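debug: dumping io for the single-chain case to check the tokenizer round-trip. Nothing else runs in this session.
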Amino acid sequence: MKKKFLEVGKIVSTHGLKGEIKVEPWCNNSHFLCKFAELYFDKYGHQKIKILYARAHKNIVLIKLEGIDSIEQAEKLRGKILFINRKDIELPEGEYFIEEILGMNVFNNDTNFCYGKITDILKTGANDVYQITNEVKKNYLVPAIKDVICRIDIENNLMMIRPLKGLFDD
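debug: decoded output
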């Protein structure tokens, strides 16, 4: 099931003296986070915050929030997680938020055998790699490539795969 509010980053520091914050983005690139006019401090959407401006700077995002005008005010936000409203962004076909993939049940597309749940997503450069953990806590690494991933069903929290030979051999 799609979550209404998704984690997109964490406030890690301040920038300058006028209340800018440094955000570690939890998305493919820092420019993605610069698209939003508002973010949230909670996963329920109760604490909305307006963004006056945002800009990518190396691997972080510098953000100026409405009402945060000093380094002291910005410092109080350090460590807070930022959320977006899912309805504010439409991803291209075949792209998903990490938070939607984590915890997903993984099944063999041909036999319907359950391999376990996705417990981590590793960024390798060429393609993501999904860590799948079975019921006895054994981990397997599966490349997130179209030769392996047959179907992702966010609504039913499942992924169907056709593993490459040797991926699940012990």
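debug: round-trip ok. The longest strand covers residues 5-15.
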